[in-house]
């Protein structure tokens, strides 16, 4: 399996622009997580889905952030409008409750966002 | 999820055992102890987890005290590639409102030197 795939790996944009980050989870996984990492705040859980349904979005910073999971193999995290303080590395992770569930999350390589 | 406390940094000589402590004094009976690590610029990687028994896998060993209020991750023969941030996390694995949720703290920066 290719693992969790995120795109783009790097994004540089200007303040006010819309940013869309994409994630393809591992096939068969039923949980998907979006995290954000900055030096100041560390790794923060933004939102997670179970079977494509958002379960907890309490970590989403504000209305400018939205996440969707239209099907089991794709999720997006959108920021509109973007601000410089949104600059961070955004990680997507997936996990499975099937079989011998260990609770292990598999992380992607991350999308590094820079908002100028 | 219960809060954990870890030292901010540790050093270890290559080839020696690295022992990373974690305090989780408010852990509940249905919460597991998880360890992840993050090598620079990469996504976090699962290492090991346990409930109350000691656990060992190909990467590490996990020692949990009898009262479950603390644990130690042991890398038996540390290499330079083990230099990373190590996160100790406690979470409910099944049931409860936090099922599936993994909350990271600040972790311990482990530096393995030659």
Largest sheet of chain B: 5 strands, mixed
What proportion strand of chain B? over 45%
Secondary structure: helix percent of chain B:
under 10%
Assembly state:
heterodimer
Considering residues with a beta carbon less than 8 A from a beta carbon on another chain, report the largest interface and each chain's count.
A-B, 26 and 23 residues
Strand tally of chain A is 11
Low-confidence segments of chain B? none
Structural class of chain B: mainly beta
Order of helices and strands of chain A: EEEEEEEEEEE
What does the average pLDDT of chain B come to?
91
Query: What general form of chain B does the structure show?
Result: globular
Which secondary-structure class do the elements of chain A indicate?
A: mainly beta
- Compute the number of strand runs of chain B: 9
The ordered string of helix (H) and strand (E) elements of chain B is EEEEEEEEE
Main sheet record of chain A: 7 strands, mixed
Terminal CA distance of chain B: 37 Å
Report on this model:
The complex is a heterodimer of chains A (116) and B (114). With 116 residues, chain A is mainly beta. In chain A, strands 2, 4, 5, 6, 9, 10 and 11 form a seven-stranded mixed β-sheet that branches. In chain A, strands 1-3-8-7 form a four-stranded antiparallel β-sheet, with no helix packed on it. Chain A has strands at 5-7, 10-13, 19-24, 31-38, 42-50, 53-56, 65-71, 74-79, 88-95, 106-107, 111-115. Chain A is globular and about 40 Å long. Chain B is mainly β and 114 residues long. Chain B is 0% helix and 46% strand. In chain B, the strands form two sheets. In chain B, strands 1-9-8-3-4 form a five-stranded mixed β-sheet, with no helix packed on it. In chain B, strands 2-7-6-5 form a four-stranded antiparallel β-sheet, with no helix packed on it.
